[in-house]
């Protein structure tokens, strides 16, 4: 047999390598910003067009490249940052693989202008799909500008795979934040489609955080400082009361490199134990400095995961340090009358290991139990009760005609609604009331999670959270698409403070939100003022709802109108729905069931999970055989 193995041509190898390094425009942003940092820039400008799909350009005032280096920088495994394998364990730069520029040049149109300090004339290089098109001398300032145009122009499949501009921009901003947070002494600017998105002067770490996340952030920060032989920790954690339902600002940097680590996250989260309700996440900006010899960055191609030699020690130290800082901040006089005295740590405890602070947390918090603050606020169930009478067919009408269905269709689907035959079928008025008089209660709650109702043919087990999501989802979707706002006017408008970019996100969906009943009287800069909210929500849930919405949108907001509405309704329903763990009285259980079966699709949740299941008598009987 003849030999069949061939070496791939370089441009093909580069394209394949590019798949690892460049997933989306944000990957290009990350690589170019990091190169500028490695080049010791003091000022960096990022220009983006069409969420980076048309242009990503980074200009720095760093050391620049010589004519030869400029050309070499686009070769694979060409790097000025390491020379031998040992250097891998003593890294002081962001880059070291020498792959980024080669990968980017394989899948885009790239233009490079660069000049070093000592030279009068710089160089201007153009490359398309790994091919050098031109290289000419050019009069340019010291430093480097790299423009990456038409990303994935030669890989249409990858280009089509990119998400909406909102999502891709979000990813770019995330990368920009990470690099900017790690290097506060460097000035950063970001321009998107011609407008200034960020303008961050050289400053310190606290200032940088505030400049990025908004002026109100300052008062939320608790400083964290600790130095031991193996680890230096600096930075800030957010006071427990600013925890978010969604994972918001959570940043770890190790030797100025942003990393993800669920292990370290756990260390921080556990330091907050007892200070936050379940399901609320702490925010933090933590900078860890360790000996470069004690970590391995090489395990992940995009370098956001690293391996520590002494993970356990780092975990323990991080946890203790954060706990200590949280305890310390609380001795400072704050206007917090509900503060638990046991939470205070005297100053002289300074060097002792801190005791876990504790705050009373109401684990049975039930938003529906809250008393309305204003006469016109309706709670979900209250509203359900009033609005569904007459308008919506309730429990009873559900099985009017059910007889015929059961007689004519012999379906074997275990959760088919047509099989449901209710125990007290003969009752004509309200099923539950009549039944209660005889048996006390017809439904009951299991683990504050399920509502269980006996049927003639077995037991129906309803997932309370998923059921309520379904109810709210249908209602919200109707409001958004039919555009009928049902709003409750607030006596005192809600003043909320979000980061500038989050306010922009909310501004984008303002119209849809107004259809659900929100009335925004201001929506600019970092400020949101709300003078009306949907009737189906309580005021105290608004902040969480908006935070969750922004989070979901950052994750994925489809471009098209219908699916956008759908996503909004889903996401609002998810954050408004009664949660697992909330106890419901029998009346509330009853209303939940009535409302659920007035829905168009009661069997599945908006996220496509089953809402209830039926355990047939037959199945129960089998257990006793
Ligand atoms: P790496 O950063 O891993 O070395 P890259 O492909 O990102 O690999 O860059 C290759 C080389 O090009 C770098 O090692 C550096 O010498 C040079 N280079 C890239 N960007 C810049 C820049 N903005 N300023 C100066 N030199 C740069
Ligand atoms: Mg690099």
UniProtKB/TrEMBL annotation:
Pfam families (UniProt xref): DNA_mis_repair (PF01119), HATPase_c_3 (PF13589), MutL_C (PF08676)
Domain of life: Bacteria
Segments forming domain MutL C-terminal dimerisation: 442-584
Any single GO BP term: mismatch repair
Gene Ontology terms: cellular component: mismatch repair complex
Keyword terms, alphabetized: DNA damage, DNA repair
Domain DNA mismatch repair protein S5 per the UniProt entry, residue ranges: 209-327
Gene Ontology molecular function, alphabetical: ATP binding; ATP hydrolysis activity; ATP-dependent DNA damage sensor activity; mismatched DNA binding
SMART domains membership: DNA_mis_repair, MutL_C
The protein's role, per its UniProt record: This protein is involved in the repair of mismatches in DNA. It is required for dam-dependent methyl-directed DNA mismatch repair. May act as a 'molecular matchmaker', a protein that promotes the formation of a stable complex between two or more DNA-binding proteins in an ATP-dependent manner without itself being part of a final effector complex.
Family that this chain belongs to: Belongs to the DNA mismatch repair MutL/HexB family.
The protein's name in its UniProt record: DNA mismatch repair protein MutL
Organism: Aequorivita viscosa
Gene responsible for this protein: mutL
């Amino acid at each position: 047999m003849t030999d069949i193995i061939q070496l791939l041509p370089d441009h093909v190898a580069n394209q394949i390598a590019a798949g690892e390094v460049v997933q989306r425009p944000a990957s290009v942003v990350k690589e170019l910003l990091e190169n500028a940092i490695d080049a010791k820039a003091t000022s960096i400008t990022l220009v983006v067009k069409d969420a980076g799909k048309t242009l990503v350009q980074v200009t720095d005032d760093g050391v620049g490249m010589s004519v030869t280096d400029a050309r070499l920088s686009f070769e694979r495994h060409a790097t000025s940052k390491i020379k031998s394998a040992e250097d891998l364990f003593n890294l002081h730069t962001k880059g070291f693989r020498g792959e980024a520029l080669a990968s980017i040049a394989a899948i885009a149109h790239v233009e490079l202008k660069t000049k070093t300090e000592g030279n009068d004339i710089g160089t201007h290089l153009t490359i398309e799909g790994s091919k050098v098109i031109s290289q000419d001398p050019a009069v340019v300032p010291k430093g480097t500008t790299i423009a990456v145009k038409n990303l994935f122009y030669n890989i249409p499949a990858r280009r089509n795979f990119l998400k909406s501009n909102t999502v891709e921009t979000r990813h770019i901003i995330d990368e920009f934040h990470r690099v900017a947070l790690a290097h506060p002494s460097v000035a950063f600017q970001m321009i998107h489609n011609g407008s200034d998105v960020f303008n961050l002067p050289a400053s310190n770490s606290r200032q940088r955080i505030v400049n990025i996340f908004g002026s109100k952030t300052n008062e939320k920060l608790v400083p964290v400082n600790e130095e031991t032989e193996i680890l230096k920790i600096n930075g800030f954690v957010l006071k427990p009361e600013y925890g978010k339902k969604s994972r918001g600002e959570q940043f770890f940097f190790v030797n100025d490199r942003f990393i993800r680590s669920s292990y370290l996250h756990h260390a921080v989260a556990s330091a907050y134990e007892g200070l936050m309700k379940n399901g609320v996440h702490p925010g933090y900006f933590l900078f860890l400095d360790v000996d470069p010899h004690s970590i391995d960055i090489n395990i992940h191609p995009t370098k956001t995961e690293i391996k520590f030699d002494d993970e356990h020690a780092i975990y323990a130290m991080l946890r203790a340090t954060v706990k200590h800082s949280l305890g310390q901040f609380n001795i400072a006089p704050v206007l917090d009358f509900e503060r638990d005295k046991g939470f205070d740590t005297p100053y002289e405890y300074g060097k002792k290991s801190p005791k876990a602070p504790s705050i009373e947390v109401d684990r049975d918090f039930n938003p529906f139990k809250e008393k309305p603050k204003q006469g016109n606020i309706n709670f979900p169930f209250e509203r359900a009760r009033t609005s569904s009478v007459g308008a919506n067919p309730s429990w009873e009408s559900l099985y009017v005609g059910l007889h015929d269905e059961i007689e004519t269709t012999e379906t074997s689907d275990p959760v088919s609604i047509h099989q449901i035959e209710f125990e007290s079928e003969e009752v004509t008025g309200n099923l539950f009331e009549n039944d209660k008089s005889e048996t006390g209660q017809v439904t009951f709650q299991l683990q504050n999670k399920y509502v269980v109702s006996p049927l003639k043919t077995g037991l129906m087990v309803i997932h309370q959270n998923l059921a309520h999501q379904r109810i709210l989802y249908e209602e919200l979707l109707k409001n958004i698409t039919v555009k009928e706002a049902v709003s409750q006017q607030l006596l005192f408008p809600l003043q909320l403070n979000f980061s500038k970019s989050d306010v922009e996100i909310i501004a984008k969906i303002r119209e849809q939100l107004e259809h659900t009943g929100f009335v925004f009287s201001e929506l600019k800069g970092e400020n949101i003022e709300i003078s009306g909210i949907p009737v189906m929500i309580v005021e105290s849930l608004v902040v969480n709802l908006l935070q969750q919405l922004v989070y979901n949108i950052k994750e994925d907001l489809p471009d098209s109108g219908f699916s956008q509405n759908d996503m909004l309704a889903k996401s609002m329903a998810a954050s408004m729905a009664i949660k697992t763990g909330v106890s419901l009285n029998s009346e509330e259980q009853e209303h939940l069931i009535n409302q659920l079966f007035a829905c168009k699709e009661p069997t599945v949740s908006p996220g496509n999970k089953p809402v209830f299941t039926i355990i047939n008598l037959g199945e129960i009987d089998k257990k006793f055989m």
